[in-house]
Structures are given as structure tokens and as C-alpha cells.
Amino acid sequence: MKNVFNTELIVITAQHIADNFSGFNQNGFIKLASDDIEHRELKDRANQICIALKHYLPKDYLTSLSILLNTLHPIQDNQDLTAISTDENGVAGWMILPFTQYIGELGQDYLVESLEGLRVMTKLFTSEFGIRYLLLQQPQMCLQIMQSWCDDNCHHVRRLVSEGTRPLLPWAMQLPLFKQQPGLVLPLLERLKSDSSEYVRRSVANHLNDIAKNHPDLIADIAKNWLLNADNNRQRLVKHACRTLIKQGHTTTLSVLGYEPPTAITAQLSLSSTTINMGDNFDIRVVLTNNNTSSKSILLDYVVYHQKANGKLSPKVFKWKAFTLAAKQTISLTKKHNIKQISTRKYYPGQHKCALLINGQEFAVTEFTLSI
Predict the structure, then answer these.
(1) In what helix (H) or strand (E) does residue 20 lie, and over which residues does it extend?
(2) How far is CA 295 from CA 234, 266, 287, 291, in A?
(3) What does pTM read for this prediction?
(4) What CA–CA distance (Å, rounded) separates 141 from 146?
(5) Which of 41, 156, 221, 313 might form a disulfide with 305, Cβ 3.0–4.6 angstroms?
(6) Which residues of the chain have pLDDT under 70?
(7) Longest dimension (CA), the chain
(8) Long-range contacts from 203-208, C-beta under 8 angstroms, 24+ separation
């Protein structure tokens, strides 16, 4: 993925800058921006390009901002960002990332102009990383200006309101103030909760999920309020926003979603094999019985406790199925699980465990041995 930044695109970008800045040292920029590029990872490559921008663009910030904006690819609201990139028509795609970093780092004394630049650039990639520099320095002013973005015709701009202010955005700097005081941003999320774009609503859900990691009861309250007379889109948003709390078995959230404590529910769990080799599949088999005299809403997940290097077990929750179990009904279900090498987990041999989660509560633990 790091190859989204390469010398060829740097050369094209340099030409666009030169077309809009007569005093531009094109060769010097290319040399500095591509310095040791083959040995740099993605974020480091973007940072190196930003360093070159800071070195070779005019020292007057507003002049430089104007130059960068003039290099941009022709913009159409709501265009597919995966279908455009930096080419002979202008700068777009990943090359926008160092542009927004430049604005974030140097544009804090020109907040209105800088935010407008980021609003425009987010239509060609995303400004969710660059805007965080400004949010860290002047959060209240940024939020005030961003209020109008909630009504922007471009869904990329509306999404930036939510995604750019996420306190725990992956790959990005955290926003400690919003992490501690989510109420500062909630009025903006409230305005976006019924957005016409699934792209925007999914960002709102991810933002709420970030908040849930430090303020679970707050998100349970928001879920309860947002579900009142909610259409299908809102219901999906709320459920996705609560996914971490669901995995954690947060009782209030599960109750809001209609999943009460699973009283008088019995569960039997078995595995197709108790000795698993790396790369093997195995079946998880469960028999559930509702011993109540009324039907029950069931949220069935399962958790695999993976062996760690220190001998302790680490749980990982996997989604399974949501359904209604009628009074006195018994149901049998099977789920295939694969143990395979992935970049986000290192497997260790030895004893592992598997358990069911029914409405957030653990049932029927069993063991298996992993051989590598």
C-alpha cells in the first residue's frame, strides 16, 4: 500500500505546482520529496512529501495555500474517490494527504482559509487526518465553522464532520479533548444521524463506537433515544455504533437493543475436533433451548480464547446470528471457524478455549488444542 506514494506521482505533482508557481524549484522538490522513498513506509512517505512542500513553497502561507488549491484535479461533488488519482489533470487521491498535512501544520493562524482548503480537498481524497492538527489547537472555533458542513451538498464534506472529529480515528492522532468530552461533538453527530448517505451514517456509527470505549453508558442512552421511531437506516446505524458494547456484554445497551438477560436458556456446545492444526477449519455446534413460556430475542456470538506467548488466554469475539427463539423451542446451529495466519494476530500452540455468548453472557465453554 505504501506504493501509493512513488517518484512518478511526485514528479507529476511537482509539474502541477510549477505550472502555478513560477519560482518553484521543481528538481529540488522532487529530490527531497522522494528521498530514500523505497525504504519509507506509507505515513513516512507522506510526511517526507510534506517536508518538501514546506521547504519549497513560498513562506507566505496564504500564497502557498492558493498554489496547492490551483493544482487540484477537477472536482465533482460526491464522485467516487477510488476512481481518481493524480494525473495530467491535477492532484487527487493519496497525494492529497501531504497537502492536508501541510495545511494542518502551517494553517493554524488562518483558520477560516485553512478549513475551507480542507473542505475542498476532502472531495478528492479525505482531510480527516490533516484537520486534526487544527482541531487540537482550536477545537471550539473549528466545530463552529464545521456546523455548516453538515448541510453541504457533498457527502465527502458531511462525512468529514464526523470522521475528522473521531477521538480514536485509526492511523491518526487522537483528540484527547473529544475523548474526554464527547458532548462537544454530539450536536454535529445529531444533525448527521439521518443523513441520506450510508457513507456518512457509517462514519457517525464509527464515531459513536469510539465514544463507547470510554463512555459506554452515554452511548446506551443515545442508542435508546435514536431508536425511538427509527427507520431501518437509523436502526443499522445504532447497532453498528454499539458493536463494541455488544461484544462486551454491556447490559444496558443490550436491553436497549431488545436483548434481555438470557434466563432459562440452556446451551450445549461441541466442536467437530478438539485438536486443530494451523490452517484447519472446524465446526462449532450449538443446541439452544428456550425453557421460557414466551419467545426470546437471541443475539448469539462466540468467543475464541487464543493462547498468548506468556501462557495467558486472550478473547476474540466473533459475530454469529440474531434471531427469535420461540417458547419451549430447541434449535441446532453450526458455524465453521478457520484458524489461519493473519497480520493482526500471532498464533501460539497449546490449549485454547471456545465459548458461546448469548445476549452478552458467556455459556458453555469448551477447549481445543492448537498445533503449529
Answers:
(1) helix 7-20
(2) 25, 14, 16, 9
(3) 0.90
(4) 9
(5) 313
(6) none
(7) 82
(8) 203/159, 203/162, 203/163, 203/166, 204/162, 204/237, 204/241, 205/237, 205/238, 205/240, 205/241, 206/162, 206/163, 206/166, 206/240, 206/241, 207/162, 207/163, 207/165, 207/166, 207/241, 208/241, 208/242
